Amino acid sequence: MKIQLLVITLTVINLVLLLFVLAQAESTTAQSVTPVLRAQAIELVDDHGQIRAQLNVESNGEAVFRLRDATGAIRVKLGAAEDGSGLLLIDESTEPGVHILVKPTGATLTLTGKDGQQQVLKP
């Protein structure tokens, strides 16, 4: 009879501890969202570990965001520096197709065709 009472008491204690641990885990999960992520660089990789996107600050102070295709070639580059910003869209042969550049001297939009011919637009 004493052994049964001991087993029941231990079972009840274990259930209370289990409920306490589950309640703590649930509240910890809800609070684990970090409001600010601080890093010197962020990289997104695919299932094979290949870098597909990068966000970092270059040694010259320019903040750069690059998107890469499955082969690792850069296809999109977005940059911001003290003297302006730029957007570069690159074709399959890794040549610039669209290049938008904004500097204190003005903005330019350069379109490059398959034959390498460029058309530059300035406001």
Descriptive account of the structure:
The chain has 123 residues and is an alpha+beta fold. It has 2 domains: 1-33; 41-121, Outer Surface Protein A, domain 3 (Alpha-Beta Complex), CATH 3.90.930. It contains 1 helix and 8 strands, in the order αββββββββ. It starts with a helix and ends with a strand. The model has no long low-confidence stretch (mean pLDDT 86).
List the helices and strands and how they pair.
Layout: H1 2-31, E1 41-45, E2 51-57, E3 63-68, E4 74-81, E5 84-90, E6 96-103, E7 106-112, E8 118-121
Antiparallel strand pairs: 1-2, 2-3, 3-4, 4-5, 5-6, 6-7, 7-8
User: What is the C-alpha radius of gyration, as a whole number of Å?
Assistant: 28 Å
What is the CATH domain class of the largest domain? Alpha Beta
The topology string of helices and strands comes to HEEEEEEEE
Strand order of the largest sheet: 1-2-3-4-5-6-7-8
Q: What do the pLDDT scores average to?
A: 86
Extended strand count? 8
Proportion of β residues?
A: 35-45%
State the shape. elongated
Number of helices: 1
Question: Biggest sheet: strands, sense, closure?
Answer: 8 strands, antiparallel
CATH topology name of the largest domain = Outer Surface Protein A, domain 3
| SS content category | alpha+beta
Please give a handful of descriptors for the protein shown.
123 residues; alpha+beta; Outer Surface Protein A, domain 3; 8 strands; elongated
Summarize it.
By secondary structure, the protein is an alpha+beta fold. The chain has two domains: 1-33; 41-121, Outer Surface Protein A, domain 3 (Alpha-Beta Complex).
